[in-house]
Amino acid sequence: MLLQRLTEYADRLGEVLPAEYYRTKQIHWVLDLDKDGTATLKDLRVSAKNRDQARTMPVPYAQRSGTKVPPYMLVDTAEFVLGVPKADKTNPPTDKAREEASRRHAAYRDLALLWAQNRKDDPGATALRSYFARGGPAGLDIPDEVQAKDTVAVMVATRWLHDEPTVKTTWASVVRERKGGADDRPGLCLVCGTSAALLATIPEPVKKGAVPTSGSSNEGQLVSINKAAQGRDGKTQLVNTPICHRCGGQAMAVLNHLLASDNHSRRFRDDGVMVWWTRQAGDDSAMALLFGNAPDPADIAHLIDSLDNSPTPHTAQRVDDDEFHALTLGLNNARLVVRDWIDIPLTDLKATVAAWYKDHGVHDGWNGTTRYVPLWRLALCCGRAQDGRYAKDSAPHGLEAELVHSALRRTPPPARTLPLLLQRIHADQHLDTARIALLRLILNRSSDPKDHVMMTLDADCRDSSYLCGRLFAVLEDIQTTALPNLNTTLRDKHFRTAATAPGTTLTNLRIDANAHLKRLRRDKKGAAASLERRLGELFALFSDDMPRHLTPLQQGRFVMGYEHERAAKWDRIRRAKAKGEDSPEE
To answer: For residue 404, which of 447, 359, 340, 336 has the smallest C-alpha distance?
Structure first.
């Protein structure tokens, strides 16, 4: 299924993809040939500061390994093209390195002439034959700066020889012969369902560095079986995974294309990457909303509107039958690990992203708006808060990828999220929109409907942990209203104990609040009356004694009650100001 979807996307991309068995590389040197075979070497290298000005283009490529590695067609390293031996910075090349460089150049020359020898009327082929007839690199002045690993391309006049259609055809034929194994094994392709010559190994790996990993970065193979114990009936390579040359090449070309696209991939900071695409040229803007730095509330409101049982006419017009595909990859040594594969209708994607934002939207009482938090920040907020910001690299390993899975699968966040979040809230005494949003998401995706919380204050809720949070917010408000210039507030000193053992803590704080209320009755009678009324109403809502201890989920509801009570206060103040009235709560 995965390979089929990749090859279908390749058919849609068409000429956007490089030619078969071509990969984009940086060109360091150009071997410029005249018609008579006279050659000059031109330097295209750039400094590290000007890396964006480097000359890059698709050139022949296929994975090669072993001691006697074969050459690429026309574009290869200086060791192949010019016979430059490998050497370190301090010592001259060894005799063994010189012999290997000579062998590699001879193989390169034979492969280049394989294309050129039968094209008598082609000026490029004629120039190439003349160049080798004149001795090739033996008659060339090669600068000392040329390193064996530098990439060298061949040009005749203004033509890049590797760009010639006949070169592409010849190179594809060479790779098929190499990757088909000793025998050209025909069979039924598992991907396209047609009878064709089958691959022995996948010709192109994923580029080195394309998949972030906490270990060493290597090229990665999507399908690789090189041990008898790994294959069915002891068979290695692709014997039990029949893939034709066309499908194998296209699938890996598309995968590398997606990994290189900023609009179709998301690299996770510590490990792994996600790529996505649509079967048709569909609108996948929902993914931009999911990963954007500042999601537009209007766009999110439109998506959430699509969840309604009676969508607006505008929403209904957006319904289509396109399909959305997403692939999450990790890297284990030189093998790709498929961590997740999603294949759903595009309309389901939009509804899924809408549900994600609906489950964690946070009401801003001061502005009367709903605030939405980008996914990356939800992962980051489980890290350490420092001076109002989150410390770099302090977020839990792999949490962002897990939250992406939760978003696209419409499942609860991983079980570790709530303990991590509560630990950071208690340790940092820092509570912001991101942490409230993540906490609301955790509660709303709980399997127990009793844990679900509204976006704004739920005046009808009688859950004791939620009420304890509201009560703590009122007690804090009493203190800060009576003593506005305190350096250490009630929240700084007692929030953790109140959220874990509210029975004793809130009882003691209620007794301490009498002194603050006495002061308010003297200095701010309106505020004293309002706060006493709110305090009395909340105590009256308890049907039983306040709980002695709260579980992690109950602690989450405590925090939500605390935040809702505070937001409701700012709502009342904002509305009073809008009416031109003075609020006693200020």
So the answer is: 340
Q: Which of 513, 482, 515, 517 is nearest to 498 (CA)?
A: 513
Angle at alpha carbon of residue 450, lines to 448 and 456, rounded to 5°: 125
Long-range contacts made by residues 457-461, C-beta under 8 angstroms, separation at least 24? Answer: 457/564, 457/565, 457/567, 457/568, 458/564, 461/561
CA dihedral of 387, 388, 390, 391, whole degrees rounded to 10: -10
User: What span, in angstroms and rounded, lies between the C-alpha atoms of 509 and 84?
Assistant: 81
DSSP string, 398-429: THHHHHHHHHHHT-PPPTTHHHHHHHHHHHH-
Radius of gyration of the chain (CA): 33
* Cβ contacts of 93-102, under 8 Å, gap ≥ 24: 101/148
Please give the average per-residue pLDDT across 269-284, as a whole number: 83
- Separation in Å, CA 399 to CA 293, 376, 412, 439: 17, 9, 13, 14
Cβ neighbourhood burial of 522 (10 Å; 0-12, 13-18, 19+): exposed
pLDDT at 449 over 60: yes
In whole angstroms, give the CA distance from residue 73 to residue 78: 13
Question: What is the structure's pLDDT at 250?
Answer: 87
* CB proximity list for 564: less than 8 A, separation 6 or greater: 453, 454, 456, 457, 458, 469, 470
Tell me the pTM. 0.81
Angstrom distance (rounded) from CA 518 to CA 482: 9
pLDDT in tens, 81-131: 999 999 887 888 999 999 999 999 999 999 999 999 888 889 999 999 999
Provide, for the chain, the percentages of residues in helix, strand and coil under a 3-state DSSP scheme, each rounded to the nearest 5.
Answer: 45, 15, 40
Residue type, 560: M
Within 10 angstroms of residue 51's Cβ, the number of other Cβ atoms is: 9
**How crowded is the C-beta side of 513, counted as CA atoms within 13 Å?**
23
Q: Token match 């990994």: residue?
A: 259
pLDDT at 586: 59
Cβ count within 10 A of residue 284: 21
**Residue whose token pair is 């075979």:** 37
Phi, psi of 413 (to 5 degrees): -60, 160
Cα–Cα distance measured from residue 515 to residue 23, given in angstroms and rounded to the nearest whole number: 75
Quickly list DSSP for 193-217: --EEEBPSS-S-PBPTTSS--SS--
Quote the DSSP letter at residue 229: G
Mean pLDDT of 539-545: 85
Tokens (6 digits) for 236: 């290695």
Check if the beta carbon of residue 84 is closer than 8 Å to that of residue 93: no
On whether the CB atoms of residues 520 and 481 are closer than 8 A, the answer is yes
CA 263 to centroid of chain Cα atoms: 11
